[in-house]
Amino acid sequence: MPSESPPRDRILIVDDEENVLHFLSRVLEDEGYGVETARTAAEVRTRDWEVPLDLAIIDLRLQPGEDGISLLQMVRERAPETSAVLMTAYGSIESAVAAMRAGAYDYVTKPFRAEEILKVVAKALEQRRLQREVWRLRREVERRYSFANLIGKSPAMQELFHQIEQVAASRGTVLVSGESGTGKELVARAIHYNSPRRSGPFVVIDCAAIPETLQESELFGHAKGAFTGAVGIKRGLFEEADGGTLFLDEVGELRPPTQATLLRVLQDGSFRRVGDTRTLRVDVRVIAATNKDLAEAVRTGQFREDLFYRLKVVPIHLPPLRERREDIPLLADHFLQHSVAQARAEVRRITPQGLDLLLRYPWPGNVRELENTIERALLFCDGEAIGPEHLPPEVRQSTEAIRVGLPHDSLDLRLALDRAGREVESDLIRRALDRSRGNRTQAARLLGISRRALLYKLKEMAGQTRGEPIPNGKWKTDSRQLTADHDRASQERGQ
Ligand SMILES: Nc1ncnc2c1ncn2[C@@H]1O[C@H](COP(=O)(O)OP(=O)(O)OP(=O)(O)O)[C@@H](O)[C@H]1O
Ligand SMILES: [Mg+2]
Question: No. of H helices and E strands in the chain?
Answer without folding.
Answer: 20, 18
